[in-house]
User: What shape does this take?
Amino acid sequence: MAQYILHVQEEFHGRTLLEFLNASLRDFLKGTIDRLIREGCVEVEGKKLTGDWRLLKGLEVRVVIPEGFDSPATPRPMPLEILLEDDCLIAVNKPPGYSTTPGYGQERVSLLEGVWHHLREANIKPRIVNRLDKDTSGVLVFAKDDRSHAFLGSQFEQRIVEKLYLALVSGEMADDSGVVELPIAQHPRRPARMLINMKEGKEAVTRWRVAERFTGFTLLEVRPKTGRTHQIRVHLSAIGHPLAIDPLYGSKHPLMLSELKPDYRPRQTREERPLIGRLPLHAAELTFRHPSTGQAMTLVAPMPKDFRSILRALRRYRGNGG
Assistant: This one.
């Protein structure tokens, strides 16, 4: 159990308890501090108050962190490919294999922790705007303040954000474009999995267009209009063309050069490595209105190395009808 004894200084006279703690506890995200207040772990002069309670100079604030409290997030350094950074937001190109947020048993730094470390000297705690699955790469946005977070979040809620994904799917699509409108719900027996549920599912709409054709595979441009969990993966699987690699909704086998190249000869000195071994799904573009200017802007994330490698091999060995 950890404990913090804090005293309200002149600059926080008249400010809220949440604002005071957010500035004083630099190693805790705002959501974690809010939870500590709600669960009664914070006392002001011995009283448990709400986060919007306004403080007076000189008051003593006691914060107790219970043992096992679920707060795994901490600023941790990691290389970041920054697509845009200004006073309102920071956008990065998320690499595959990294989670958006931390979790127990997770050794790799999450993007939230990496961005938090990047902003720590400026005493800024990032707010998550959008999320991507661990094995999905692409545009990930964090807000730097509450106003920007609310402004950007409302655009996602109103479905005015335009999202473009690149998805490599199994099989050859018969049509050049289409729309999938099937409601999605959580699987009743497998919490990590989603499924199509016509009665209890939530509305989900995904538009797709063929970007490139290969023998046995198709590269799609996918534009989800809603943001359900695993939406693209579930919808593409439902129409018979799951992602080329997807342990939950399709095949879990990585794509190897030996499967694509007719005269492939293995190297005796080195075991063959997959061209790509994760979800071939990349959040390529995100278009939204900027919190400060209100102007529409598009962020573009270059494809990671493994995605480029599999496309290069398909173009060479599976392109133009074979």
